[in-house]
Amino acid sequence: MSLKSFLTKLFGKVKVEETRTIVINNREKNRVHKFSENFVRTTRYRWWDFIPKNLLEQFHRLANIYFLIISALQVFTDLSPTGSYTTIGPLLLILTVSAIKEAIEDFARYRSDVETNNRKLFLLNDKGEWETVTWKEIETGDIVKIVNRQYFPADICLIATSEPLGMAYIETSNLDGETNLKIRQSLLETNEFVCDPKKITELGSLSENFDDSNIKKFEGVIGCEAPNNRLNTFDGYLEFQGKKFSLTSQQILLRGAQLRQTKWAIGSVVFAGYDTKVVRNSSKAPSKRSNIERRTNYFIVVILFLLVSLCILSSAIQVISVYTTVDQSWYLPKTSGQLFAQTFATYLILLSTMVPISLYVTLEVVKMCQAFHINWDLGMYDDESDKYALTRSSGLNEELGQVEYIFSDKTGTLTQNLMEFRKCSVGMVKYGRGTTEIGRAAAFRSGITILDDTDPKWKKPDPMFNFQDQSFIQALRDPKHPDQKIIREFVTLLAVCHTVVPEGQGDSLIYQAASPDEAALVAAAKCFNFKFHTRTPKSITVSIDGVDKVFQILNVLE
């Protein structure tokens, strides 16, 4: 009988959730469905199962099983030629040190869980007022408000934002590793119900844009798919004001993503806690075994084979010796089988020192010290984020020095992922001076000498702009130049044809791009005085020589 059928007979038919119906801002009706709470735990152990689970983990090591057998023979039999506690003492020390190391690492996970579950956000309570609560207190169906730079506590259906047309910019680096901003947009009907479109401005404050009375009146029902691990898809609908509106991934804000360049966003919780897509994509903290540990187990097997062979040989010689002098050995067992077993156990204990009992604990201590050194390494410090390296697990430290091959789908995985605008070709004419590091390296391997024709005193106006050619600037500015029209069209295309999202204003303007190539091209256009500064779902605004010009977006190819 399978486990599933056994549980079905024992507890009845297990109900599998196929679809989900959520009443917005009505906890009583939603609690009937027993949706998951928003508390999430990532630790491997709990206080009551730490000892059995850790012992089970440690006895995956063959040497520990061997020494446990030797300890049992020493303590519970009279066959040991040495003391009764000569092996069990060191074994307990090894198990204790390894358990302490595991406890320290798991406690770090526990602290991270506590910090995450106790983050603050705004919740619309029964009185229609915004109340500050922690992540673990929110439930499915609650209406929450996230402010700029905050992370989303659960999978949320976007209702309204501070931006025009209900737009919200999010960063999903915690989900897919991409640091570029992505656009999400609420339904226009819900956004206009909550916010007064006439009062919303790009720089408006919450008090100017937000209407408390409207959010108090907001009522609706969300119907959607069951919880799953598909990050890029969502299938659902919203019943609002007697109408049904389709919901897609464009209206969903996933747990772990961060709100950016949007003063606030309001939404209703769809999936909470273990039902969220990012949690369903994650797995429990695995038991990691390095190559050294696997090889150590192999060598332990070889040593045990030699040890058993010696014990068998010695026991056989002992039996033969006894039976050749059986008249003088009256005090020994009379049966060869009993004598062989006792002699074998005695030699097994006596030769147990062939297996190094301190090997594993030495490896554990060395790994822990290595983890501390990695955390303290100034060479691993990042100036931009002001962060040091963080070793979450010391189980695979030695693997860092044994990497032979790296398979990558893009250069950014292996390099700094920085691009510079250096040269361009417009109207069959090449512009720009100098060469790249790759070009210099290729020339050096070929034995070719390249003369540097760039100005060493020239300072880059932007880290991504390293373009030195006054003839291009003159052609761009001179109305009489024959190539001015095509050059201006070229620079205009750099400023318009992209998916870059601007962040900040004025001199602090930062471009969030899907690739460094796009960011470098838009930065080059800005340095040519074609400054892209505003994006909406339907238009792009570029300041050309100080005059704003709006370009309508016809289509986006991704």
Kindly describe this structure.
The chain has 558 residues and is of the alpha+beta class. It is 37% helix and 17% strand. The chain contains 17 helices and 20 strands. The strands form six sheets. The chain has a six-stranded antiparallel beta sheet, covered by helices on one side. Strands 1-8-9-10 form a four-stranded antiparallel beta sheet. Strands 7-6-12 form a three-stranded antiparallel beta sheet, with no helix packed on it. A hairpin with a 2-residue loop joins strand 9 and strand 10. The protein is flat. It starts with a helix and ends in a 6-residue tail after the last strand. 25% of the residues are buried.
Look at the helices and sheets and give the structural class.
Answer: alpha+beta
- How many angstroms separate the termini? 51 Å
Mean pLDDT: 83
* Cα Rg: 34 Å
* Total strands: 20
C-alpha geometry: flat
Biggest sheet: strand arrangement: 3-2-4-13-5-11
Quaternary structure annotation:
single chain
Continuous helix count? 17
How much helix is in the residues? 25-40%
Q: Hey, roughly how much beta strand do the residues contain?
A: 15-25%
Which segments are poorly predicted (pLDDT under 50) over 5 or more consecutive residues?
1-9, 200-209
Biggest sheet overview: 6 strands, antiparallel
